[in-house]
Sequence to fold (525 residues):
Amino acid sequence: MTSLIINAFLLAGYYAVLATGLAFMYSVMNIINLAHGALIVLAGYGLYVLGNDLNLPFPVAIAIMMAAMFLLGVVLHRAVLARAYGGGELLPLLATFGISIVLDNLMFQTFGADNLSLAPLVGDLSWASFELPGSIFVGKISVYILVTAIVVIGLIELLLRRTALGHRIQATSQDRATAALLGIDTGRTAAIATGIALATGVVAAAALGLRSAWGPYGGSAILLFAFEAVVIGGTGSLWRVLAGAIVLAFAQSLGALVHPQGFLIGGHLAFLVAVFVRLRGGRISLARLFGKEARA
Amino acid sequence: MSFGEFAVLQDISLSVGAGEIVGVLGPNGAGKTTYMNILTGALRPTTGTVHLLGEDVTKLDTAQRCHRGLAQTHQIPKPFSGMTVFENVLVAVNHGRSAPAHDPISVAWTVLEDTGLAHVANRPAETLGLLDRKRLELSRALGTNPKVLLLDEIGGGLTDAEGDALVDLIRSIHASGVTIVWVEHIMRLLLEGCSRLVCMAEGEVLADGDPHTVVNSQQVQVAYFGASA
Fold:
């Protein structure tokens, strides 16, 4: 039982890492990025090429990929999202859905159908574990991922609340007209925010690749878990995403206890309950589904 | 300026000299807000040009005009929620100036002291009452160090006493050297606050000059008060 609880928390850390970029993009830009999962997979291939083919140390590969994904985010915003902005909720959804299909197939074309893993890049870390009292073993990687999730969320919250850039991003996300009146280049700010969201995807890609393996079409599964964690938690603060991830992970673990095949079902049930709770009595909207409220 | 077939503004030519405080009066639908949005760059005029401090800014966007010294307050105050009063002003100080302030924090403090909000500086902005929200609108605008300040119906919804307090604040901002264009339909505030009054109706300038002369002119009496011609 203790081991089940600990493992659920560790799994939650993984889901939180997956969901952070999605929640950040929605809470500051009002864009549900359906290419979120595919972009994480893309970052995974980037890490693989840098670490395996070019033999770069893993932290260096992560740093390079974060810079690359940040730039890709800026380009993505300028080329697609900025044009979709102001066209209603559906337009960015369709645009990012299209991007995900293109990315999925480009990655299939380039890297083939084989499943890849980043585990060989970190030596014995991928299977090393901590032993807790009572002969409970927990994987080191899972612990590091949970810690990373907390650090990443903490850093982004700090950025948003305490820095000039963060205030600029908040101002732009709340009211572009007023932000512009106060001298903020809103297009540039939104591009930077997209870059940050994609850069956090590299952390998710590292977590994905170290925990297990992925294939070219792995993005939709990632998107599903991330989306569920965000809807369950809500997007007022990124800490809520961590809470959502914890609920999702516990629901899945409980599902697995009830029935060997119940793991996914348990998570989906928690998601459905969250959907009904969020949408009860009132208009159906994406903002309500994502529990969007002002940052407090 | 036209929206589709509908010409909201016909042929408005308004020139405001440095250091003036000009009131713009007009009934609903006169085109005041459209006019103001053209000045800030929120709307592009179908024809005509906008000049700011001698420079043609028609092609510049809102943020660029802000950096050149133009600021505007909203009719309905929209503080950034999730930020304190102080942080709201800090956003303006950090981003709205053509040259970055050396010490943004003390600049923001000075602004809040001038506008009388220093005592609530660390409160979440969304907890302010209406008058203080309007003060915050002014504070944010002042944070950008404007040379020209546009006020869009800032007096709406205030009690008489609150209105007087606001007029005092606006006059002190004007006295510090800021040119002010004040769009309003509460005539009393404009008469108290302004040295020149422009009356608009149906997208045109009806009268322009000394406030009391403008208010008493025949066209304004007809357009604004519904007096028979």
User: Anything to note?
Assistant: Chain B has two domains: 1-69+147-229, 79-145. Chain B has a mean pLDDT of 89. Chain B touches chain A at residues 40-42, 61-63, 66-67, 71-72, 74, 78, 80-83, 87, 90-92, 94-97, 104, 124, 126, 140-141, 143-144 (CB under 8 Å).
